[in-house]
Amino acid sequence: MILIYGIREHLNPIKAQLSDVIHGCMQSVLGMPEDKRAHRFIPMDAEDFYYPGGRTPAYTVIELNMMEGRSVDTQKALIKALFSRVHSEVGISPVDLEVTINEQPAHCWGFRGMTGDEARDLNYKVKV
């Protein structure tokens, strides 16, 4: 599950393109299949979205929620791929992008009527 926050006027026009870039990074770095896109865009009014100094109204936050298992090197590669591709393909400067990875144990995930640690039919690897 990926949550993307930004100021409404800046986020709404780029949602589809940003989703494609994020998912492309998930595929190339983590090996996620095409049909495993779970993105939630949260466009906010400017008065509800405070951001650090030195940023512009294009400031965007990407929160990646994943089952634990990816190595530190893999996580860093994903973050760096996002910075690079979001900048080159969407035009958001790395200074205006914040990326966080939140990992939870597989037993804390529930989907298709089971917990993540019970799933034996995932068509992607978690331990990469």
TrEMBL record:
UniProt feature coiled coil, ranges: none
Classification via Pfam families: Tautomerase_2
Entries under InterPro entries matching the protein: Tauto_MSAD, Tautomerase/MIF_sf
Domain of life: Bacteria
Entry protein name: Tautomerase family protein
Lineage, uppermost ranks: Bacteria, Pseudomonadati, Pseudomonadota, Gammaproteobacteria, Oceanospirillales
